[in-house]
Amino acid sequence: MTGAGARGHAARGGRTRAVLLLAVLVVPLGACSGDGGGGSEESPQEVLAAAKQALDDTSGVTLSLSAEELPAEVDGVLEATGAATHAPAFEGDLTVVVNGLDVDVPVVSVDGTVYAQLPFTTEFAEVNPADYGAPDPARLMDPETGLSSWLVDATGIEEGERVRDGELVLSTYAGSLPGAVVDASIPSADESADFPVVFHIDEDGRLRSVEVSGPFYGSKGTVDYTVGVDDYGTLQDITRP
Fold first, then answer.
1. pLDDT at 126 (0 to 100)
2. Are 92 and 228 in contact (CB under 8 A)?
3. pLDDT tens digits, residue range 104-131?
4. Alpha-carbon distances of 191 from 131, 136, 223, rounded to whole Å
5. Are residues 60 and 27 in the same domain?
6. In this structure, are 68 and 97 located in the same domain?
7. Is 122 found in the same domain as 28?
8. Is 133 left (phi over 0), alpha (psi -120 to 50) or beta?
9. I need a labelling partner for 36 at 20 to 30 A (CA). Which of 119, 154, 161, 217 fits?
């Protein structure tokens, strides 16, 4: 073999050894990340219990709730978003369906009383959210009966695939919520039904979203709601308007 040929052969051999070495290093790293699931050594129940604690411990969050549509002839919440704290209190905006029309309503909830600025008015007035098929949004922050209770009261929990939401990598946990648990947070829900639920937990062990479906408005049909949880550590002094 000529000198040039020997050098080429040696270069190719070096590259081959480098590729093989890289493969040896990469394969164990990939294996450590799990087989498509969360890859956590904790049980699903332990993961969700820790997520409940994280939500209960934070000062506040941004909550959102949305549904693509409501069943015909149902008055209820189509969308909601706002700041929620453990006072408990909430300040944000709701889109409710009333008599087939979408109505945007600024809402403040403090000390168990809900205030809304109704259409064609300029001031907030005390309202009963049930009159609009809506819950008191501040109740979702109650550690005993709110959103965090769903994490530990869900049954038949199974870990699913990891999914990506923008820059977030989320672990999924699917199960079922008893209707009585959902009804404690959202009183219009049928407490005799079961509600399929999927929790999405981020890499810091915090709840980031919930997909839940079922008869939120009795026998009028199934609604698919997504509840988003963001901005952990929110500090906001929410007062009566």
1. 96
2. no
3. 999 999 999 999 998 889 999 999 998 8
4. 19, 17, 15
5. no
6. yes
7. no
8. left
9. 154
Q: Does residue 164 belong to any structural domain of this protein?
A: yes
Give the dihedral sign, CA 198/203/207/209.
Answer: negative
Structure tokens at 240: 């009566």
Instruction: Identify the pLDDT of residue 4.
Output: 47
Q: How many residues does the chain have?
A: 241
How many whole angstroms separate alpha carbon 227 and alpha carbon 81?
Answer: 10
3-class SS of residue 76? strand
Residue 92 one-letter amino acid: G
**Residue-wise over 18-37: b if at least 16 C-beta within 10 A, else e?**
eeeeeeeeeeeeeeeeeeeb
Q: Which two tokens stand for residue 12?
A: 């190719």
Q: How far apart are CA 123 and CA 136, in angstroms?
A: 19
- CA-CA distance, 137 to 70, in Å (whole number)? 18
The total of structural domains in the chain comes to 2
Kindly state the tokens that stand for 216: 């939120």
d(CA 108, CA 199): 27
